[in-house]
Design a protein that fits this description.
about 10% helix, about 425 residues, homodimer
Amino acid sequence: MPTEKRLPRRQFLVAGAGVVGALTTGALQSAAQDAKKPEVEAPVGKAPDVKVPEAKALPPYVSWKRADAVIVHSPETIEMKRGYGGTSVITPNDVLYIRNNVPAPDAAIVADRDAWKLSVEGVGTPKVLTVSDLKALGLESIASVLQCSGNGRAFFDHKPSGTKWTVGAAGCVVWSGVPVRVVVEALGGITPGAGFMTSTGGETLPDGLDPKTLIVERSVPTGAIQEALLAWEMNGEPLSLAHGGPLRIVIPGYHGVNNIKYIKRLAFTPVESDAKIHKTGYRLHAVDAKSAPEQPSMWEMPVKSWVTSPLKDAKTGRVQITGVAFGGINAVNAVEVSVDGGKTWAAARFVGPDLGRYAWRQFVLAADLKPGSYRLVSRAIDAKGTVQPEDFPTNGSGYGHNGWRAHGVDVTVV
Amino acid sequence: MPTEKRLPRRQFLVAGAGVVGALTTGALQSAAQDAKKPEVEAPVGKAPDVKVPEAKALPPYVSWKRADAVIVHSPETIEMKRGYGGTSVITPNDVLYIRNNVPAPDAAIVADRDAWKLSVEGVGTPKVLTVSDLKALGLESIASVLQCSGNGRAFFDHKPSGTKWTVGAAGCVVWSGVPVRVVVEALGGITPGAGFMTSTGGETLPDGLDPKTLIVERSVPTGAIQEALLAWEMNGEPLSLAHGGPLRIVIPGYHGVNNIKYIKRLAFTPVESDAKIHKTGYRLHAVDAKSAPEQPSMWEMPVKSWVTSPLKDAKTGRVQITGVAFGGINAVNAVEVSVDGGKTWAAARFVGPDLGRYAWRQFVLAADLKPGSYRLVSRAIDAKGTVQPEDFPTNGSGYGHNGWRAHGVDVTVV
């Protein structure tokens, strides 16, 4: 893979100066580009007044992505177009979204994958393990939805800053690696009193700045280790640099930001990380409030669904309405579809194999539609009976939108 | 995709002259190349005296395959290297094997996928349906093992002609399409007395030859329609030309040759096809016998498994022995691993999600191995209790090898 171009120092300094809601260099680049670029038509399924930046070329480190299937918001934020993920449960690697908080490290780190080192701390016998050591400890694979906290941001009316994702900052993939619990057992268990699992990314940070303002480090409650995986493979391929290779932690059911790429340190700690991205970043707060540690962190994902086809036009007669539905931290149990914007609902059918609690399900509803205009929406119900809500509260950074109403699409049947 | 080069007429004429055991132009090319090329070291897991042809470059129509992960036997026969399919259940598109009996049609046929036509015959209301029509009828997805009848041919001692596949003419993928039974129901059901479902491929055949000698057409018992799919998608991507796009029939549990690519005709017939590839091709027969219609056809696949890692060396201590196991027409229930060539066995553990009856399962056995030489073998047991056999009978064309002994690998632990 080509070597990632280093970001100019100047942009790091801007980030270091503290821009609320735009912590990251990627977001800064995106914001800078948004200001310069002309705007083009709204994507399918978006209100026509929501503007998106003009299409950009794929950056070299992800030149292998399918250019026709993605929207390049910035070099660090690349969205899968709605309806381009197929109906085969698993999202292909070459269309899966990209969201890097800091540019990817040099591609040299994937030249000798097995040599990558992880420091495990806060256990009986702290130790530095290579990927090769981890591979000898165990093997598991798990399917899970990977979704950015900001997926759906474009559907908020208050125009929060940050990438205007609609539905394409999400995918369902299969990971292979060693369970964190197996590693912890091999190292004598978690130190008593450690309530959090803290993961640190191996991105290269510039000298002369407080690393806490830029380092990609997140804590989650220790309970999450039951399902967490230290993964070296995604969808049967060695984990690419773009998606966090050689080693990434996967915490099924948790928002993407917690699935730290290029993980170099896994620590069981009594307190949460004080890195800016964790301490105040990725928090749900009111539009007029500043981010703060006491606000909810973007941890567990809630139930969500959306329609993937048709998105614009359909031929009168039998129309197969398809989409994806997932329960986030819980399994998804059912999904309903409405063709009249939510006035009436019909149960959709799940399609294909069930890949487990953290995977999404494809769904289909066959509807006989006469010529006319239709508003297609879907709402999922998780295994605890929680129904996907009609709306999601406005919040400062535009996180966590799972309201079914805004995710609907207007379709003309002719 | 680039336009497929047309095969010179001369080669078709040779095939038309009737070469037993080398029905296909691909096999003819391969055989011609074998005669000229120097031979190189046997692949991992092969007896050292089994020669394979020198590595060739990827042909243009599959230039998107991972060159490092495949063995190009000929332009129409490309094998996945052992151990390159990952441990994430699904085989990535860019490593999945290729076996075309006749060169793929011109890429023009995937320029407007929805316009591809299928003639459905032997039903209440015979009809020509486009892919667009089929998409309106229904949607299902299914995971299944795709495996060439000749997979394992290299393990026979009598050196049958044909591609010397070891284990890499197999993969597990997810297909999306419309169930054949839904199409049949929509067209008034199967004509009484039709015991076979006959699929015809849309390959371009040269003028002036009896098409029956070259056409890719196979019959299967009508009962197979319960699970059969007319598929337009594989692993979330529109079905590539190389793998049979725009439309392929998928008959889960049946050998690859029955899963006709570029399907242009689906007929329910009282008798089996008289095309050469069906009438006498793909038959199990004694080495000194000629192929004949009364011999067993390569229809349902039996239970099978093999080790995928380690394949050569391993570090002493805990070694994770991995592999794949499937039941073919039945689900797979269990798999055992031996490190002493089959003297003693231990139950392996299935890894990751179960994608259903026709998918394979990844397995793992953690073994503590001292320095020394080991012969790793695996044997699977299907849902009916059938155990993968130690050997498989020698047969003229080298089909159907599922004997566990020959599939083993010699590993040195240091």
